[in-house]
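Lecture 7 notes: from sequence to structure.
We start with the chain below.
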Amino acid sequence: PEIPRFQGTRYNSATKRCPACKARVQAEFPPEAKTHLQYGFELKNLVVYLRIYQLLPNLRTTELIEHLYGLKISVGTIDTILSKAGENAEATLAKIKQALLRAGVVHFDESGMKIKGEKGWIHVAATDLLTLYFHHACRGRDAIDEGGILPGFDGVAIHDFFSAYAYYNCQHGY
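Predicted structure tokens for the same chain:
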């Protein structure tokens, strides 16, 4: 298939010198332009897809984009794109949590993993249509409470009967 070409928008800002006081004055960029070169939604979406769904590291993501599209973007740009995507995801995350709270049956589980050499836990709450993952340093009730689903859930919680789940006032199944 043909590989799409991405376009960036380059902003230029005129600089003038006041004839009276000789001070330099530079025009401002539009509010949406933080720097002189702006990447569009398509490239930003690709970065999020490669990093989050395909689990590519930052450096490999920059290399892939350069090889396929001829764009040299920095690891810092990748971090900025991911940070903004995270901020934009907050409203979606809230909707997913609300839908899980209203679901009749939700599966709960947790798996240990290391992040930067430190032991932690990935917790999951899922239905056939929704999945919520969240990381916590702990496995037990503190983590489950912070996940925000089981404390207010009154449906059927499907789980492996890890003792922390028994604390919650809902129906339990396996």
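Points to note: Strands lie at 8-10, 15-17, 24-26, 37-39, 105-115, 118-126, 131-136, 156-158, 171-173. The chain has a mean pLDDT of 89.
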